[in-house]
């Protein structure tokens, strides 16, 4: 049986309250669980000690039994000093998509063409000015 340490949602609409539970990975989110390890109340201030209540000893026991914590619970366990969580690194996350890259290339080409046209226009007015002087005489 695959075990997971995860959050089980409670509370009313727009007023979430979570239990930190050990459950079979196949059971539904708010369904049957094996043991309750603590609570998480996201509505409380971040510095409030009642925001996350966790039984660290039981969490260590279940981790030793092979239970896998979810990302959010892994953060809680790291703060409690139960399990070290490695920081994730995804350098491609901020990279623009394929279409956005194509649009940027098109914009760069248009800007380059506009600069070239401006440079040509800067060189061209001198002969036009000479024609204007000749017609004025």
Automatic annotation (TrEMBL):
GO terms for cellular component: cytoplasm; small ribosomal subunit. Keywords: Ribonucleoprotein, Ribosomal protein. Residues 119-137 have a biased composition (Low complexity). It comes from the Bacteria. Residues 83-115 have a biased composition (Basic and acidic residues). GO terms for molecular function: structural constituent of ribosome. The keyword DNA-binding does not apply. Residues 83-137 are annotated as: Disordered. InterPro entries: Ribosomal_bS16 (IPR000307), Ribosomal_bS16_dom_sf (IPR023803). One of its GO terms (biological process) is translation. Belongs to the bacterial ribosomal protein bS16 family. NCBIfam families: S16. This is Small ribosomal subunit protein bS16. It comes from Sphingomonas endophytica. The gene is rpsP.
């Amino acid at each position: 049986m695959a075990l997971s340490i995860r959050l089980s949602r409670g509370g009313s609409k727009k007023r979430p309250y979570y239990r930190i539970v050990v459950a079979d990975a196949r059971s539904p989110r708010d369904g049957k669980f094996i043991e309750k390890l603590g609570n998480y109340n996201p509505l409380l201030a971040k510095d409030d000690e009642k925001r996350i209540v966790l039984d660290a000893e039981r969490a260590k026991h279940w981790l030793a039994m092979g239970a896998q914590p979810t990302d959010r619970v892994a953060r809680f366990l790291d703060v409690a000093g139960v399990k070290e969580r490695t920081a994730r690194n995804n350098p491609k996350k901020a990279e623009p998509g394929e279409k956005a890259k194509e649009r940027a290339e098109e914009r760069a080409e248009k800007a380059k063409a506009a600069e070239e046209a401006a440079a040509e226009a800067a060189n061209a007015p001198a002969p036009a000015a000479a024609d204007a002087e000749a017609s004025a005489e």
